[in-house]
Amino acid sequence: MTSRKPKKQRKSRYTAPWHRRHRYLTAKLAPELVDKHGIKRLPVHTGDTVYITRGAFRDSEGDVIEIDMKNLKLSIENITIEKVDGSAVPFPIRPENVMITKLNLDKTRQTAIDRKAAARADLTKKED
User: Fold this and answer.
1) Which end of the chain, N or C, is more open, meaning fewer C-beta atoms within 10 Å of its C-beta?
2) Taking the model in full, what pTM does it have?
3) SS3 per-residue string spanning 94-122
4) pLDDT by residue (tens digit) across 79-95?
5) How far apart are CA 86 and CA 95, in angstroms?
């Protein structure tokens, strides 16, 4: 972001195109996954197991059941609130407030992880 003004930062985030919104849906990885894969952050996918680190549902864990690209929020299994009529609805969680503890790996995601890990390794070699 180019501006330091919070109003302009919020506006650029809320009006961002879809290909940029995907980058806002990243979360940090658990320390075990950082050691295993060699990267620190990764976009959240449906089926990942996440640990909530902030908010009213802190210290809860569950699988991601839905990702809301429009509002940049996650719906997590068993994280619900009760409406006035008694029905339970998923409580939206921001991705920066979660930590991925288990990845839902498929072939394309594994290649992305390998590509990012290789780029990070090259960067650390250049610094030394």
Assistant:
1) C
2) 0.88
3) CHHHEEEEECCCCHHHHHHHHHHHHHHHH
4) 999 999 999 999 999 99
5) 27
